[in-house]
Amino acid sequence: MEVSAALKPTVVVIVGAGGDLTWRKLVPALYDLFSDKWLADRFVVIGVDRKEMRDDGFREHLREGVDQFSRRGRTDEKAWSTFASHLNYLTTDFAIPGGFSSLSDRVREQEKTWGAKPQIVFYLAIPPTMVEVTMQQMGEAQLCQDRDRVHVVVEKPFGRDLISARALNRLLTGTLAESQIYRIDHYLGKETVQNILAFRFANALLEPIWDRRYIDHVQISVMERVGVEHRGAYYEQAGALRDMIQNHLFQILCMIAMEPPVSFQADEIRNKKVDVLHAIRTIHPDLVHEVAVRGQYGPGWIQGEHVPGYRAEPNVALGSSSETYAALKLFVDNWRWQDVPFYVRTGKRLVAKVSEVSIQFRPVPHQPFPVEALGEWQPNRLVIRIQPEEGISIRFQAKQPGLAMRLRPVDMRFSYREAFDGPTPAAYEMLLLDIMRGDATLFMRADQVEAAWSVVSPVLDVWGAVAPMDFPNYQAGTWGPEAAEVLIARDGRSWLQPAISEDEEEKESSE
Ligand code: BG6
After folding, report:
1. For residues 317 and 251, what is the distance between their CA atoms, to the nearest angstrom?
2. How does pLDDT run across 10-28, given as a tens digit for each residue?
3. Nearest-angstrom CA–CA distance, 485 and 494
4. What positions carry a catalytic annotation?
5. Which of 70, 127, 164, 225 could connect to 28 by a Cys-Cys bridge, CB 3.0–4.6 Å?
């Protein structure tokens, strides 16, 4: 077990601590970090919310979440009570004037007890509509003035379009320095997403072929089996383009397309990523129908169970136009990627939960083999599997054993699970620890967020102005709408359907 890098005394204030994120992600991640001794001994969580609750009730509620979502499984009494003694709850309405004054008092008490000024992480686990008023109250309570000690974490969605994201950035930077703001995108905390950097830049063999001369196109697919679950109200405002593509899929795209960084300094990596977003070709509104597809699931069957369509989900309008599936074709206009299409797609209620990047290489320039040898021949393909069964595979041609020359594609696979022992930390563990260490590499800078909104703006505008006529246009339990097949087929290509092993199917159905 690794010992914590001398972490400073830390207070983590979770604003909106009664919500799902705290229960499902944040506290299980803190519990795992604590159990692995990554956290300072002088560490407390103060959960803040409107709901009346006492410390005991708060702890009990959080324990259920930890039992379900910690990578350690169910807690034992001793481990839990040690951790739980660091958890506190404060009932307050943080949206009203003076709402944070009891919190200021509580933090001051903590300083006295420790005889030291702690670093303070404010985690805003609140809906985007609450951020403005909360920031105003935090500003008034003078909680954020110490630029070196106070960090503020803002969850996605960061705005709902370019204009609102700019306004939010202005609001935040009115009270905080950019270095204090951690805009979180949990995809950046995933091991396999970070591994894209290791794979690309710690190995010499890829860089020479990582460009338009050798790569035909790139596909990024983030497919989900779940529907909108209990998040209908949020999803009605968001849709797949805002919820997934503008952030998670673009982060992956940046890592695939970025230039090699000079160092691993936060701003160096972020500069290289923002360069990619700036290079994405602007989508002309007249071409949106050619390069963008939206879909919405209707009822269907998933793993033998009948599931309702999106419009029948709780808090969803009967005639809703929100997309639960989105696909885009993008180009990165620079020397490396000119005219190489990047196809990205994501959707809910699809066949399986699987996220992967496929890099499709061009065919060999000259084919010396006789026609009979080529029956199953395919160009090389590199697949980076982000989840589940994290790993990388390379498809290449091999001679099929026998007396004749026949080529057959085979896969060379690297599996995280087989290569490395030990548990993989959850994305939120990585990100929470980085916030406490003051490392912003895996967080989005204001300009990145705005650049990402600029890319999708024309699509949002056109989709917002013209209601879809064909929703629902895919059945739950399929790979999405027919129109997405047409989008890529127009270029003489097709989506590379992820391989789903039976193990994965079983694992997922038991989750
Ligand atoms: C969230 C989206 O950011 O990511 C959800 O709001 C989505 O709609 C989730 O289900 C997917 O994350 P993961 O880690 O399960 O791939």
Report:
1. 31
2. 999 999 999 999 999 999 9
3. 7
4. 248
5. 70
What is the distance between the alpha carbons of residues 432 and 404, in angstroms, rounded to a whole number? 57
Say yes or no: CB of residue 390 within 6 Å of ligand 1: no
Atom of ligand 1 nearest to the CA of 427: 14
Please give the Cα distance from 245 to 344 (Å, whole number). Answer: 8
Burial class (CB in 10 A: 0-12, 13-18, 19+), 7: middle
Evaluate the omega torsion of the peptide bond into residue 388 and state whether it is cis, within 30 degrees of 0.
yes
Q: Which two tokens stand for residue 104?
A: 């200021």
> For ligand 1, atom 8, which residue shows the shortest CA distance?
243
Closest CA to 280 of 248, 240, 246: 246
Which pLDDT value is given to residue 3?
43
Residue 389 beta carbon below 6 angstroms from any ligand 1 atom: no
DSSP 61-127: HHHHHHHHHSTT-SPPHHHHHHHHTTEEEEE--TTSTTTTHHHHHHHHHHHHHHTSPPEEEEEE-S-
User: In the chain, how long is the greatest CA-to-CA distance?
Assistant: 84
Ligand 1: which of 24, 155, 224 to mutate, judged by most atoms within 8 Å of the beta carbon?
224
Inter-helix orientation angle 77-84/55-69, to 10°: 130
Question: Counting atoms of ligand 1 from 1, which one is nearest the CA of 234?
Answer: 6
- Euclidean distance between CA atoms 399 and 333, whole angstroms: 38
Kindly report the protein residue whose alpha carbon is nearest to atom 2 of ligand 1: 243
Q: Is the CB of 224 under 6 A from ligand 1?
A: yes
Kindly report the protein residue whose alpha carbon is nearest to atom 14 of ligand 1. Answer: 187
Instruction: Give the pLDDT score at 509.
Output: 44
Q: Is 429 in the pocket of ligand 1 (CB under 6 A)?
A: no
Helices 27-35, 427-437: axis angle to 10 degrees equals 70
pLDDT tens-digit series, residues 115-166: 999 999 999 999 888 888 898 888 888 888 888 899 999 998 899 999 999 9
Q: For residues 282 and 297, what is the distance between their CA atoms, to the nearest angstrom?
A: 28
Q: Assess whether the C-beta atom of 243 lies below 6 angstroms from ligand 1.
A: yes
**Residues of 452-481 as b/e, b for ≥16 C-beta within 10 angstroms?**
bbbbbbbbbebbeeeeeeebbbbbbbbbbb
Amino acid symbol at 96: I
Test site for ligand 1: of 24, 158, 186, 235, most ligand atoms within 8 A of the Cβ: 186
- Say what the alpha-carbon torsion angle 431, 348, 303, 71 is, to the nearest 10 degrees: 10
